[in-house]
Amino acid sequence: MAGTPLLDELRAALGTDAVLTDPDLLRTHQRDEADLCPAGTPLVVVRPRDTGEVVAVLRAAARHGVPVVPQGARTGLAGAANAVDGAVLLSTAAMTEIREIDPVARIAVVQPGVVNATLAGAVARQGLYYPPDPGSWESSTIGGNVATNAGGMCCVKYGVTGEYVLGLEVVLASGEVLRTGRRTAKGVAGYDLTRLFVGSEGTLGVITEVTVALRPAPQESLTLVAVFDSTAAAGTAVARIAADGLTPSLLELLDQIHLRAIEAYQPMGLRTDAQALLLAAVDTGSRAADDLARIAEVCTAAGAAEVYSATDAVEAAALLQARRLAHAAMERYAAQTYPEGNGGLIIDDVAVPRGALAELLDGVARIAAECAVPIGVVGHAGDGNMHPNIVVDRADPASVERSRRAFDEIMRLGLALGGTCTGEHGVGLLKRDWLAREIGPVGVRVHQAVKAALDPTGLLNPGKVL
Amino acid sequence: MAGTPLLDELRAALGTDAVLTDPDLLRTHQRDEADLCPAGTPLVVVRPRDTGEVVAVLRAAARHGVPVVPQGARTGLAGAANAVDGAVLLSTAAMTEIREIDPVARIAVVQPGVVNATLAGAVARQGLYYPPDPGSWESSTIGGNVATNAGGMCCVKYGVTGEYVLGLEVVLASGEVLRTGRRTAKGVAGYDLTRLFVGSEGTLGVITEVTVALRPAPQESLTLVAVFDSTAAAGTAVARIAADGLTPSLLELLDQIHLRAIEAYQPMGLRTDAQALLLAAVDTGSRAADDLARIAEVCTAAGAAEVYSATDAVEAAALLQARRLAHAAMERYAAQTYPEGNGGLIIDDVAVPRGALAELLDGVARIAAECAVPIGVVGHAGDGNMHPNIVVDRADPASVERSRRAFDEIMRLGLALGGTCTGEHGVGLLKRDWLAREIGPVGVRVHQAVKAALDPTGLLNPGKVL
């Protein structure tokens, strides 16, 4: 009952309907979508509606020395939103206001709980474009996207979430409200605190408002598929597309395990005999047909067995939909491989320089064989950012151990190839050790110093990232 | 003679030729190009050649409690590189190695003293493009560009320096070497320390290596000039170009004072009877002619008296050159207005949301009249980022006072219009008070906490920014 006075204070500040302790609800809020990450038992879920209520939550939690874990839609894949024991889970689910869309300044101002697809749709109706499109875009929130610096399929041409964040309102651990950044196209007034909060996974403050940059609507895109007899050849094609000066608006890779999983999940005539499939799109207007033809040539020269263009927008959309189903299809595949709820998926995330992509793909295949675990590979080939997805039998300690070993080997390989341990999913709980290895002792010390400067008592999302 | 033991240590570490105390040389290194900013008397200029020597300089300076001021080419416009009394001026002039250009990863790795134009030329020879193009690009260094997050004319389409910085090597005040960021297209491993150092004006660490992202070479551009009878009409045209979904690769404004100053400096047939001139370019390939025609239509509808397209690349280059001469021409104008070295120029830098550009331009004209000082306006209209340049008689305290008042009024107006006190030149010494006003007490406190976390003894560039 240590929490009771805190709960009373929260109810007084937010009203009883925004302070939730129902055990089922606590359980559904306990973790994000990362497999094999620990999650504690929270005290309460709170749903503040505005900045003032977030301030009240942080002040109350600080008074009682109770940690606060910010949560968006809990679609994260690194455990960053997982509960810690006794924590206040601060959900932004009730902060869903789109405050402004300005077509001249090309900005939008939103509360953090606005769903990515909702914002994207709202600006599209005004002829504008909010590019960041993480796989979770239909359910994940802008606040969560910003807190994890989410990527997606558009990044190869349009960049990640952080490149669209102009300014933030953040409630600090002290309960003070900080405004960072600006509404202008350019600005260099002081340290770039905006980017410090982007990707900080709720460890430095609670984002309560986001000002994002928008672009004019892109032109229609043309799409092709290239089928390869080896994943490494597909990797080589990606490197040559970049070397050739081409900038596709999408360049995704699916390996055979994924092709088969998707086809089993939703039959759509994919070439399940292929070792790898590259999906490319261009949106360069009147140049698009030429650009697509050049990509086709490069793929053929790199060894593609077959290249075909989508004949119309419907076929192109179907191909994109196949790619979007990869995650769900692999979860189904894992569940069917190890029934009774034992089939799990460790969704990894590694990025290497484009030129090292073929080597990464070969290496992952070798690791899968050595560790005797199924690993499917899918991802944003054009960015060198791949998701090796390891299928694990949660009921079998040996399978879990082999999966963890494969995970570590992939991380080791990625760093050895000049890469990073996370291209877009973040560190959370899953990759704290690998972050430390990647950034080294000086990097860790600087991270700790920055964390201590912003959150000296460790109130916010303790144990995550660092 | 307090400095003598330090000088001995520096000479022992770097060799005598890299430790310079010649009074003339100290004097030329005393300040950057900002007018009316104080500069102290330095102890020494050091020119380390590599990271190890930078470490040696910082360790020695820390032992003796002597401040260190990092300097690139001293082309800054806010006094950030100005000496403080007794300081070690750490020049990166001898760190000029381009270590790598990788066309597949689309990155370059350089030492900080590489001149912007040198890098731009080197990557262009490989069919690549390093966009950031500050006015000083022929002399300013990549290290200085990163430390100030420099802008330029390309930003309206291609963004500022920070958007191209993937990773850094930084020597901290402790003498430790920190590596931030990555070589990959995407990466979210830990806090974005790269962006924390970008724009921190030498107050958090000394940049010793920069990894930048490159783009494929842009397509050829087409250029037009629109002549306006009022600056506000030109501002309206800019807002409408944005609202129309157009993205020019350049959209610059020159007012009558600048047109006349440039024409006097180097006659090139500019329309000196115009109140304002908009210079626009598009590099959208086969769409370019259509896009340029639409920009012309928008300008005409917004009240342009005349619009004409450059007939060829030579004429387009001449128009761009006219714009590039604006700074030098205004300095000449100031020198001729107040001879005997008394004519100075306060080069201001303010950015507002594009929709407020017309209001900003009207306001600056009103302020010039009220304060009875000549103010010419030039700048990156497409970003809402203008440079109101105030001509001052340094020998006349009344003129200096009126100029400072005009400067303050412009800053106040910029903030009132939802803008920022600096779009691209930075804070340095010139705008510390305005930074504090813009970011408020919570912002200042967070800045101080970050500074203390990275540089607890205040060794690096003391008194700048904060």
TrEMBL record, chains A, B:
Which PANTHER family does its entry note?
Answer: GLYCOLATE OXIDASE SUBUNIT GLCD (PTHR42934)
PROSITE patterns reported in the protein's UniProt record: FAD_PCMH (PS51387)
Could you give a GO molecular-function term held by this entry?
FAD binding
Cofactor(s) needed for function = FAD
SUPFAM superfamilies referenced in this protein's UniProt entry, alphabetically: FAD-binding/transporter-associated domain-like, FAD-linked oxidases, C-terminal domain
Spell out the protein name for this chain.
Glycolate oxidase
Gene3D superfamilies found in the cross-reference section: 3.30.465.10, 3.30.70.2740, Vanillyl-alcohol Oxidase, Chain A, domain 4
* InterPro entries, alphabetized: FAD-bd_oxidored_4_C, FAD-bd_PCMH, FAD-bd_PCMH-like_sf, FAD-bd_PCMH_sub2, FAD-linked_Oxase-like_C, FAD-linked_OxidoTrans_Type4, Oxid_FAD_bind_N, Vanillyl_alc_oxidase_C-sub2
Q: Which domain of life is it from?
A: Bacteria
Lineage start: Bacteria, Bacillati, Actinomycetota, Actinomycetes, Micromonosporales
| Organism field | Micromonospora yangpuensis
Instruction: Please state every residue range assigned to the domain named FAD-binding PCMH-type.
Output: 38-217
Keywords, A to Z, come to:
FAD, Flavoprotein, Oxidoreductase
Q: Which family does it belong to?
A: Belongs to the FAD-binding oxidoreductase/transferase type 4 family.
